[in-house]
Each structure stands twice: as structure tokens, then as C-alpha cells.
Amino acid sequence: MQTTFLPRWPATAHDSYAPSVWVMEAVSGRRRLVALGSSAVGVTQMSWAGGIPALRALSARDLELMVDGVSNDMGGTVHGVSVQAGRIDQVVLPPAPEAVVVPRQLPAVVPDFCGRSAHVAALDALLAESEGNTGGAVVVALNGSAGVGKSTLAVWWAHRVQDRFPGGTLFVNLRGYGPSAPLAPQVVLTDFLTALGVAERRVPEGVEAQGALFRSLVTERRVLVVLDNAGSAEQVRPLLPGAAGSLALVTSRGALSELVVLEAVRRVAVDVFETADAVRLVEGVVGGPRTAAEPDAVGELAEVCALLPLAVRVAATRVASRPFLSVADVVEEIREEQRGLIGAGGSWRGLGAVRSVFDWSYARLDPVHARVFRLVGLHPVPEFGVHAVAALAALDSRSAIHVLEELAEQHLVEPVARRRYRMHDLLHDYAALRADLDETSGGREEAVTRLVGWYAGVAVAADRWLFPRAASVPMPVEARDVSALVADREQAVGWLRRERAVLSAVQRMAAERDLYPVVVALGVASRHLWSGPRAWWPEGVEAVSRGVDAAVASGDVPAEMLLRDLKGHSHRGAGEFEAAEAEYRVVQGVAERSGNHDWHRWALSGLGSLRRVQGRPEEADGFYRASCEIAVRVGDEVAEAMVRGNLSEVAVARGRFDEALDYARRAWEWRSRNGDVLTIAYGRHQLAVAWQGLGGHDTAVELWERVVDVYATHEDRKPQLASVLEAMAGSLTATGRPDAAADRLRRAAGILSDLGDPRAGHLVRRADDLSAG
Prior knowledge:
By secondary structure, the protein is mainly alpha-helical. Among the domains are: 55 residues, no CATH class; 153 residues, Rossmann fold (3-Layer(aba) Sandwich); 70 residues; 98 residues, Tetratricopeptide repeat domain (Serine Threonine Protein Phosphatase 5, Tetratricopeptide repeat, Alpha Horseshoe), CATH 1.25.40.10. The protein is built from 36 helices and 8 strands. The strands form 2 sheets. A 5-stranded parallel beta sheet has the order 2-3-4-1-5, with helices on both faces. Strands 6-8-7 form a 3-stranded antiparallel beta sheet. The longest helix is centred in the middle third of the chain and has 26 residues. This is Tetratricopeptide repeat protein. Pfam families: TPR_12 (PF13424).
């Protein structure tokens, strides 16, 4: 029986492998095949963009070993015409069949939607056009000024027709207008792709590659894409589906003229309500008996609100909540506000009517509710959680919930999830204006300082769940309610990902105010981004870079060294090897001058990992050995175990399996005594890999079975679980247990299929071949 070693592309490049390491393992694997006298060659799909630089670095002999014995011979009986390739430049495996994910992302619809019959008819006609269109997706733009109800119309109509789009409904608020930065197309595409079933780690880098994959995925499925609050054509264009049958609905305050010209967009103008529609909205909110008693006053209420749906709804909600007030009383109060309003400038130019309604509603809030409302205007984005608001306003969480629920009753905020709220962009702007007018400068700065400190505190707590043994920084403040948000590792991952955009904005706010400890803490806590899609990595580079600047400005050398080390890792992961080396060398230089052993070890290990991904394992081994010597000399058992694990993996890549086993065993001595379950599981995995290389397949299988038991209970370890199951299949095959090997391959294929990994089909075929004998 021949034994075939099949090196596989690791689950994630930042899990300590990279394309060049795959190449070196392939070479060493081929060397083993040559030694065993086997003519089989293992082929796996890999990122050729990442692998080509490493291929160029290989010696001529290495390249000969990789292709030695590969032929293009045809076997068996051939019927009909055959075509053979004289040269093969790339192997592309077809994607595995996977369960279709059908996203339905629309937010809740308002319960009392009314009017807009002409707009609905226009949208229905365009829907019919999209169903019969063969030239490409139909794109519709709803244009109109702030507060006219574009988003409400878009969401209501999308709910009404989404069953006509079996491929799913995608929704995003692009934040094109407001205090926070507009969402970048790359960020939105990442979210769209994952919603469509693409595993995060398989989302490509760069907006062009992401857009191409997005359009490919929706080619065979009718999807409805709702792009709300778009700021520019550049923000929208990469997000449009290309295939016929799909429809994109865009809302924007701007005309998006360039998009209309280049993409043949159908434009539907949205203006203020007709008087009759505004009256119907008031009737729906207030109730028939009260409005029937004052029909003229209801019409006047609509008029003083300038027929703007948002203003009408806010005023009507206030009337509904005050049964002792007549509609006529409310109309007179709003008119008094309008008479007292002196030139609303800036973003309120031309919106005097809606400003007066907001002023009137705000003036009738009690002092506590009014204060919370205006402080929410200081939050960097118009969506927020209860605990963030509690930090802003220096309240306990129960009080914050009570206030936010009351504001929701007044239609000043909108609940979107448990203990999470959203504010209309126009109301968010108004809240910020009230904060400028009604809070002292010191009061505003104190509120922002509490907010950014709270976010940094929770982020550090979450970071410690993800990286319990890594160097960290102190919490800038003792954030309240941390245990309610990040009580375990899974919650920590969820919170960091949910608040990703907010944390970036918060760090910028802190940097503008020279709140250096907060900037540093958020820089360190950004390292979780490297376990996400590549589209997140530029955010990580920016966050770490801001952290370095803050550490330098504040003279915090320990924080600077930690952040430079992280910055080196970020550049290394992005393939920016020169920049990575520069950061590691800075840390090395400071360490050598100061005599700090930790910093010196970080630099040497970083350089070792860099050489490893550059395809220079001998140099990697030298740096790792030097790092290990420091750890042994200072008695740092944790660092020693980690570096010995790295040395074991480098030894595997070099085909030195006895050496790999020795390093793995010595790392295991500490892991088995002190590690958490994941650390222990990874130690067993390193031992198993070494034993497999030595031919100790039974021992390897036994170790991997225990690793599987652990990884199967951790949702974020699915890629690693699939890798272990695949590796185990190799040892089961080598020991004459093909049925068991096929079972492991099918389990691995199921996991990869769920993750959207196209290698799933390849594993199924391997399993079928084993079962067929």
C-alpha cells in the first residue's frame, strides 16, 4: 500500500501558517513521497496570489521535487473526442454544493404606514420590469430631502414584495449623511457576503474582488438589495447586483446623478405628504374619535409640520400620549415654537418646520429624559445599546432602559433589538444640536470621556477573553456592566464584532481629545480583527497605528512596544513584509538598549514568524531558538511553551519529525499543567502532527480524537475542527481503516460546506473514493 501525504491549506493564514508555508510543506511532503517510493502527488486548492512569491523563493531542486513524477497520461477506455492540456498553470476545484442561505435583513416596518399610492404604483411597475428584464438588475433611486419618509417607504415596500425574491433580501444603512463616517463599500460587501453564506475567512480582500464574488453569488438567484441613506454614487456602485431579475432600491438625499447616468438608474422623487395622507397618519397614531372631533385642527397640525412624515409622526405621538390636550392646543404650541425660532442654520436650513416640531417635543420632555436625548446626539453613530447610554448619561442601566423606553414611546428613538435602539438621522442631528445648545462644554466633554472610557473598558475585558495569556494593557476605567455583556468567550466575540464600527469611531473621538490611555487600549483590543475577514484588516492596521501614536505621545514605552509588535503582526498578515520587519526591528532595538527580556522575545518571535511566511524556515528556526533561550533564561514557562510549539511546526515544515516531536513534547509539559482546554487541545494537535510524520498513526489518531472532542464544543473553532478531521483521515487511511477515514472526511466536508469553503466537495470525493475501495 502506498502512503500519500496531502498537505492542506490551513484554515486561516493568521493561525500561524501562510501561503509560503504551504509551499514548503508541499516540498517536504514530496520529499517524503520520494523517500517512500510513491509516485502520488497531493494537490490542494490554494491562494495563488499568496503562493507565487513563495514559489519564486524556492530552489530549483525544490521545484523539481514538486513536479517530479507528475504526468499527463490518459488511462482507461476513452470514448469520443479527448482534449489534453499541454501545460497546466493553475488548478481550480469546483465549489462544493452547499445549503443556500436566504437572508432576510429588513428592519421592522412602521405599523401605521399610509399614503404614497403613486410611489407604490411606480415601484410595483419597476418590479414587474425587473421580472421580465433580461439585460441586468433594475436599480431604483428614491430621492428626497431629509425627513420626507424615503426609508419608511423603501422598507415598507420591500416587506410587501420580498417574497418575490427567493434569493433573499439584503439591507444596509450606508450612513451617507450624519456625524459618523459613511460605511465603506468593502465593509458592506463583507457583511453581504457572509449573509449569503460565505465564510468570513473566505471573503476576498479588496472591493473589486468582493464585488465580483457578490455578483457571482447572486447571478443565479433573485435578490432584493435595499441601500438606505446613500451618500454618493461611489458608495453605491460596488453594491449593485448585476444579473437580471434582481432589484436594488437606493434611498438618498442627493440626486446621485453620476449613478443615474452610468447605471441607468430609475429615479423616483419622494416629496412631503399630500395633506390627506398626513391627516391619515395623524388619525392612525392619535385615534379616530379624537381626530374626528377636531378635523380642522388635524389638518392644521399636518400643515404646521410642513407635511413632513417624520415631524407629523413625532407631533402625533405627543398628542396621543397626552389625552388631556386637544389637537388645537398642540397646533398653537408648535406655532409658538415657530415664532420663537430664529433662523435654523447649518443642516437645518430649509427645515424650520421640522426643527420647530422637534423643539416643541423636546421642550415637553422632563429634565432627565431631555438630558439623555441630547447626550445620545454625542454618540458617534445613531444606533446604540442601553449600557453605552448609561455611560454617556452617568446612569445605571435600569434607569437608562426606563428613559429610552419613554423616548421610544414618543417616537424619538426606535427599539431594534433587546436593549438596543436606533435614532433617525435627522433626530440624531437634532440631539447633537441640543447638546451644543443646552450642555456646557465641560458637560459635553465629560459625557464623551465617560463614553469612550466605557467602550475601551469593555473592549479590553473582551480582548482578555480572546487572548487570556497575551500581553495587554490596563483598563482605562472600570467599565460598569461588563459581566452582563462579556461574561464568556462567545459573548466577547459577539460584542467586539457587533460594535466593530463604533469602536473605530470611538477611538478617533478619543484621539481627537488626546485621551491616550483609551486610544492605546482600543488599539490593543483591535487584534481580534485579524481573526475576521481580510476586509477588516485595514481597520486593524489603522487602530493599532493610532495606538502607537498615542503611546509615543504619552511616553508609554511598554504600550508602544506591545502595539508595535501587534503592528508588525498586522503588516505580516497583510503580506507587507518590509513594514513588518521595520516594526519588529524597532522593538528589538529598544529591547536591547533597555535590557527588557519580554520585548526582546516578542521581536525575535515576530521575526521568526515573518521568516516563516516568507518561506525561509531555517532562519525562522534561528529566531525562534533565540526567543526560546530568553524565555528559558528568565523562567517564563508560558513563553517557552508557545515558542517551542512554533519550533515544532517549523520542524514539521522542514521534514524533521523527530525534532518536531521533541519540541511538541516539551511544550506539552507546560500546556498539560497550566493551559485552558483550547491550549491543551492545540498542544495535542502539535503532538499528533509530529507523530503522523513519524508514522505513528495510531498515536496521532488517539490524540486527534481528544482534540475533536474539545473543538466540537467551540463554535469559533470549526475551521480547526475540519483541519483535524482531515488530518486524522490520513492516519486512518495509512492504518487500513478507510471507512473510518471516509467518515472523518465527510464530517470535515460538512463543516467546510457550512462555512462556505469550496474544498468541501474535494473532501466528499476523497471520502467516496475511500468508500468505493
